[in-house]
Amino acid sequence: MEKSVLRFEELLFPSVADVAVLSVDVNNEAICVEARWTTPGSVCPGCGSWSSRVHSSYLRFPADVPSAGHRVVLCLKVRRFFCQDASCGRRTFVEQVPGLTRQHGRWTERLRSTLAAVGLALAGRAGARMARVFGVSVSRSTLLRLVDALPELDVPAPRVVGVDEYAIRKGHTYGTVLVDVETRRPVDLLPGREASSLAVWLAERPGIEVVCRDRAPFFADGASTGAPQAVQVADRWHLWHNLSEAAERCVADHRACLRAETPVPRRPSQPRDEPTDASGSPWSTGHRFADRTRANHATVHALVAAGSSRRVIERQLRMTSRTVKRLADAAKPEYLFQGQWQGRRSVLDEFKPYW
Questions:
Q1: What pLDDT sits at residue 340?
Q2: What does the pLDDT look like over 316-330, one tens digit per residue?
Q3: For residues 102 and 61, what is the distance between their CA atoms, to the nearest angstrom?
Q4: pLDDT tens digits, 44-78
Q5: What's the mean pLDDT when you consider all of the chain?
Q6: Are the C-beta atoms of residues 179 and 155 closer than 8 Å to each other?
Q7: Are 316 and 308 in contact (CB under 8 A)?
Q8: Is the pLDDT of residue 129 over 70?
Q9: Which residues contact 17 (CB under 8 A, 6 or more apart)?
Q10: What is the CATH number of domain 160-238?
């Protein structure tokens, strides 16, 4: 029995010391692990003094990482100690198991780190859906808060930095994004796109050798002021983008000349056997929209003649009341060919000879 308990402790808490597993209860809903901390005392978080004088104890139920599709809940017996230092502002304090619990925490530290990794990889909504797959119900806002609480990594100063703007609200609020061009990873975000903020950021990193930017004047001034030793270059995307805009403007300016010198080729017209309609409608039989309108018009009028109410017609034909009213009020289907049925000009008319 002692060997099995030791195996449970090694299996459930491989990186946590001084934790004893008392029992394991497995049911259809969850796995409940009863455990306690075996140290004789704890350190006060206020003054750092050691205390072994127990005030009381109670049970905590932090959720742990699921196992085999089952929720895992710890039934952890924790003790409240008296602080031995009279000058400390805390009279009592609760022991925290290092690497397992934290103050006011409802999750174990490994479940918290797992959810933070999911949120870091998939963000909010997708991360919440993935967490539900392995048995943890969590909201997207909670995942984003976990990601926001992660400590910032110490990123070394880049040698080649890319500078560009991004829109928080297009046309109103903009910011500056700085990217390590060699690793292709974002380095920092600056509020606004002023030259002063960029100059201060570059001045704090004297190891920058190349600044890759667009042709914005405020980025040029900021790079010259903050990193005078760096070489300023234009990035590849903005070079191609500026070239395409210049070519488009050139073609647009000389469009009339090109049209005058190059006649529009016309294909030889071939006679078509157009169907004739005795009604004189511009939309003759064979046009799918016109045929559908004529069929709906005939069906509605047949039901009206049979004594059906318009509400019954709506339910039978699955049409809206407005559509049934238009069809019933029109004496002929040609009266319905309005608006989009008219022969209005289109932006594609001048390109029809090329078809």
A1: 53
A2: 998 999 999 989 998
A3: 12
A4: 988 888 999 999 999 999 999 888 778 888 899 99
A5: 83
A6: no
A7: yes
A8: yes
A9: none
A10: 3.30.420.10
Per-residue confidence (pLDDT) for residue 143, from 0 to 100: 92
Amino acid letter, residue 105: G
pLDDT in the model for residue 270: 53
List the structure tokens of 201.
């950021």
Q: Please give the pLDDT value at position 130.
A: 92
Please report, as a single letter, which amino acid is at residue 297: H
CB-based contact 218:195 (threshold 8 Å): yes
Backbone angles phi, psi at 82, to 5 degrees: -80, 140
How far apart CA 269 and CA 315 sit, in angstroms, is 48
